[in-house]
Amino acid sequence: MKILAYSHRKDETEYFKEFSKKYNITVVLTEKQPSMETAELANEFDCISIITTIIDAELVKKFHEIGVRFISTRTVGYDHIDLVESKKLGIHVGNATYSSNSVADYTIMMMLMVTRKMKLIMDRSNSQDYSLIEVQGKELPNLTVGVIGTGRIGKTVIKHLSGFGCGILAHDIYEQEEIKSYCKYVDLEYLFKNSDIITLHMPATCDNYHMINKESLSKMKNGVCIINTARGSLINTDNFIEAIESGKIGGAALDVIEHESGIYYNDLKGQVLNNKDLAILKSFPNVIVTPHTAFYTDQAVSDMVENSIRSCILFKEDKDNPWQIT
Questions:
Q1: Active site includes 92?
Q2: What's the pTM?
Q3: 47-50 β-sheet, strand order
Q4: Which of the following is catalytic: 231, 258, 306, 310?
Q5: What is the CATH number that goes with domain 2-98+297-316?
Q6: Using one digit for the tens of pLDDT, what is the confidence trace for 46-86?
Q7: Which helix (H) or strand (E) holds 287?
Q8: What are the residue ranges spanned by the domains of the chain?
């Protein structure tokens, strides 16, 4: 069996070698991203592995013409792939789960950095301003954290947060019995009204597009802190910026933003970025912006590579595939 892995990074090489040998398959690696120009590289491959490059309807059609039958993204999210066109043409799509500790730990780190005003402290220290003006923080045991989405990552966040002594509210369509001793499941409006910190942990869907918007923000506490390590499309950025400027949002940490594709994971020093919102968000002293790196640990990269390979094998062998979306 052969798999073509697009967007190969050097940090993935050892894992592709290890798991190619373990599963006795051939993986052809290319640093090139999938595109109309590079699609021909997938000729004679049933399965391709990608990361976050947008696979629109036109590119899906191109891969279908070439003979690709399965697209595996080495990510949990799959909103960068046109699933409607994929289903229409009979191309199947799968994602890849990885260590939930990676994003969960990063999320809690960002909570602590926001509530302790670490961006402002570090910026001032860099200019040798060691005063205490405007840097008084808050302690987690005095706060209530609202966790929206209690899948693998949200569930891990809740378990890890339980050791900090804070109140924890949770919301999800599917409640998890194993974490009910750590949190209280509530409806979304209650969570909005009673949380000092709100953290997002759900995939991007049509139903939750811009769920953080002017209306939902109006229900939140003044000075609420918002953490997003999930997907940028969950937040209406225009409304979000207005809420920061008005003081409604007291602090934020965003590992993902709207329209980040083509920016994150590239060295763009000296270039004008085609994303005004990113420039505005970075300018606020109480907003931390990181380039979609919450997942990025050695264990997570290993898991992403292995599970993408396993998913392709299961598809090829027509076996039950826990990662297959369509």
A1: no
A2: 0.92
A3: 26-29, 2-5, 47-50, 70-73, 92-94
A4: 231
A5: 3.40.50.720
A6: 999 999 999 999 999 999 999 999 999 999 989 999 999 99
A7: strand 287-289
A8: 2-98+297-316, 100-289
